[in-house]
Structures are given as structure tokens and as C-alpha cells.
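quick q for whoever's on today - can somebody do inverse folding on this one?? i tried earlier but teh output was garbage lol. C-alpha cells:
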């Protein structure tokens, strides 16, 4: 797809999308391009500056993507905090007990050391990291089951 800036004989400017560069010429020859302001069929391409990516536009897109990611992680964390049972430092034991059928299945979250997390993963206990709260990062990792 290609976007062209267009101008009619009465200097009305507008934009239109075409499947490729020759599509404009084909549609113009068949009088299929019409000015949305006045209905004129005498339409030509206007001078248009190409979209050039600068480091500024790349930085802005990266900032937008980072902001969106943080918002999504915040929503995930909020959902877990509102809907899962917080088990604190007992997370590894609770997750293992559920996995082994000793405790009933339920959604939990809490803290676990790196060693506890490694052991749970090695033993096939299904866990996932919980995104850290932006305002506080603790030495223990939070996880959910």
C-alpha cells in the first residue's frame, strides 16, 4: 500500500491509499479518483515529503512501547493481587503441595527465593514470575501458580 497526497483543480488537498504506484495512474485514467470536497475528477499528486525515520521518531516509538508495556504489566499485577490468594513466603510450599495433590488447587502468589524457584521448575511445578511493582523491587522474586 502507498499513500499519496492529492490535489484537485480547485486546490483542495486530501490523501488516498493505493495498492501500488501504478494503481493511481490506472484509476485516474478511468476517472475513478474524485475530490471529496468538491467532486472534481481532475486530481493530481501533490508534493509530499517522504516519511523519514529519525532517531527522534524511533525514540518516541520506543518510549510509547515502553509505556504500553508498563501499563500492561501493571494491569496483570493488579489482576493477580485482586483475584489470587497471597501466601507470602510460603509460596514454594503451597505451590508444591498443590502440585503433589496435598492441598486443593487455587490461584496463589507470593515470594520465593531463586533456589526455591529453581527447584519448583525442575520438579515440573507450574509457576510464572509476577511482574515487579514499579515502586518497589525486593530481593526475593514474586511468583504465581
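ok took a stab at it. sequence:
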Amino acid at each position: 500500500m502507498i499513500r499519496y497526497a492529492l490535489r484537485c483543480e480547485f486546490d483542495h488537498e486530501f490523501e488516498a491509499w493505493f495498492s501500488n504506484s501504478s494503481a493511481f495512474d490506472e484509476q485516474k485514467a478511468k476517472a475513478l479518483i474524485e475530490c471529496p470536497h468538491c467532486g472534481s475528477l481532475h486530481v493530481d499528486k501533490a508534493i509530499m515529503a517522504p516519511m523519514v525515520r529519525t532517531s527522534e521518531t524511533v525514540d518516541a516509538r520506543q518510549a510509547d512501547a515502553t509505556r504500553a508495556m508498563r501499563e500492561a504489566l501493571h494491569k496483570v499485577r493488579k489482576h493477580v493481587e485482586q483475584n489470587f490468594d497471597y501466601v507470602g513466603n510460603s509460596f514454594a510450599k503451597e505451590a508444591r503441595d498443590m502440585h503433589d495433590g496435598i492441598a486443593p488447587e487455587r490461584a496463589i502468589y507470593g515470594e520465593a527465593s531463586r533456589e526455591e524457584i529453581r527447584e519448583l521448575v525442575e520438579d515440573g511445578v507450574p509457576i510464572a514470575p509476577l511482574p515487579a511493582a514499579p515502586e518497589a523491587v525486593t530481593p526475593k522474586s514474586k511468583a504465581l501458580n
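fwiw Residues 75-144 form one domain. also The mean pLDDT is 84. so keep that in mind when u check it
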